[in-house]
Amino acid sequence: METFGRGCLYCIFGVIVLLFFAFITQSTIHIPWFIFIPLVFLAFWAASKNNKDH
Question: Could you tell me if 47 and 6 are in contact, meaning their C-beta atoms sit under 8 angstroms apart?
Answer without folding.
Answer: yes
